[in-house]
Amino acid sequence: MGIQRLADLIRAEAPEAVSSVPLERYRGQVVALDASVAIYQFRTAMPKIINRHGQNISPLQGIFYRTMHLLENSIRPVFVFDGKPPDLKQAVLAKRATIAGTARGGAGKGAQDSCLWSTQPEDPASEDPPQWLQKRDSETLLSCLGVPYVQAPSEAEATCAALVKSGHASCTATEDLDALPFGSVRLLRHLNAKHGVLEEISLPAVLQKLGLTHEQFVDLCILLGCDYCDKIRGLGPKKALKLLQEHGSIERILEGPCREKYPSPANWRLEETRRLFLQPEVAEPSQVLLEWREPDEEKLVQFLAHEKHMNETRVRRRMEKWRETRLKRAQPQGPVPVIRSSPRQRKMSEFFRVKKHPCKETKTQCGRKRQKRQQETVLGT
């Protein structure tokens, strides 16, 4: 679910923090992706692709094409998988599972979290494979593509944010905005945009425009509504922001006249929720091995085409397109112009040979002799 209405509030109150960027801007950079969100997107947004085993392989195909698209654009993705959900999230997970129980495969991302880390098989032959199988297949696919993945001990967004804060990644790519209160300084959304223009949110710019510290921003996210505790009823986004800007913390808001107007929920676990955002359990970035290798096409075909029964021709065609694109990018964009110096202007003497006068005497001597001859002619001598 993420943080309720946070994206709308940021666009309204801190529009300078949101920008449209081309995918090419991240060329050569590391992007940390929330794998659970990606799997959920492909599972719900794409038409079902049922293989001969009766399994829906649309999430697997979606991960394959998205990863190839990123690699084709010289972007280095690293996928982060959810671990065991925090205890604070169990209540909301149970609620979502109940709501989605009537529609098989209709559970949202949050309802999947509780079983993504589990390795207990449910029914691998069902049309919608259990999440543990989707996770295992995604890891196998990424290994064939030479793309690293990380197993988070708890929330994937928290480990993505830790990778960004430590400089191991440039941004977190996810549709949920939970990565911002977890501390990701840059968030990238709409990675599936066909036109290649993405939405980038800068956390430092958000904090500056809203006039909040990171701790106060976490309080704002709690007031808006998150996955770890109930929200205060009747308190809208703009009112919550205004009160927090005036009072500085949730406790001070509730100590004033707002105590009766906006009572806190019963058994409200405010401090535990704060601690979860500010001090989350994450995979230690220094212990994470991020290494990208060349894709193994034959292993990829063996897995996707022979085991999962994806169309082999399409798989090989996509790999061929990737190779052609990479080769094209490696070549110079055009012939290097040869710069020649301007030709030296030639003298007239270089075109025509100029004969020297046979007389080696000076002009003064020649002039005197000419004058003497003219006098002799006049005198008749």
Automatic annotation (TrEMBL):
Its cofactor is Mg(2+). Residues 1-103 form the XPG N-terminal domain. One of its GO terms (cellular component) is nucleus. Keywords: DNA damage, DNA repair, DNA replication, Endonuclease, Exonuclease, Hydrolase, Magnesium, Metal-binding, Mitochondrion, Nuclease, Nucleus, Phosphoprotein. GO terms for molecular function: 5'-3' exonuclease activity; 5'-flap endonuclease activity; DNA binding; magnesium ion binding; manganese ion binding; RNA-DNA hybrid ribonuclease activity. Its EC number is 3.1.-.-. It is found in: Nucleus, Nucleolus; Nucleus, Nucleoplasm; Mitochondrion. InterPro entries: 5-3_exonuclease_C_sf, Flap_endonuc, HhH2, PIN-like_dom_sf, XPG-I_dom, XPG/Rad2, XPG_CS, XPG_DNA_repair_N. Coiled coil: none annotated. Gene3D superfamilies: 5' to 3' exonuclease, C-terminal subdomain, 5'-nuclease. It holds the Pfam family XPG_N. It is an enzyme of class 3 (hydrolase). Residues 103-132, 356-381 are annotated as: Disordered. One of its GO terms (biological process) is DNA replication. Binds 2 magnesium ions per subunit. They probably participate in the reaction catalyzed by the enzyme. May bind an additional third magnesium ion after substrate binding. Residues 143-212 form the XPG-I domain. Interacts with PCNA. Three molecules of FEN1 bind to one PCNA trimer with each molecule binding to one PCNA monomer. PCNA stimulates the nuclease activity without altering cleavage specificity. The C-terminal domain binds EP300; can bind simultaneously to both PCNA and EP300. Interacts with DDX11; this interaction is direct and increases flap endonuclease activity of FEN1. Interacts with WDR4; regulating its endonuclease activity. Interacts with POLB. Belongs to the XPG/RAD2 endonuclease family. FEN1 subfamily. Structure-specific nuclease with 5'-flap endonuclease and 5'-3' exonuclease activities involved in DNA replication and repair. During DNA replication, cleaves the 5'-overhanging flap structure that is generated by displacement synthesis when DNA polymerase encounters the 5'-end of a downstream Okazaki fragment. It enters the flap from the 5'-end and then tracks to cleave the flap base, leaving a nick for ligation. Also involved in the long patch base excision repair (LP-BER) pathway, by cleaving within the apurinic/apyrimidinic (AP) site-terminated flap. This is Flap endonuclease 1. The gene is LOC110090970.
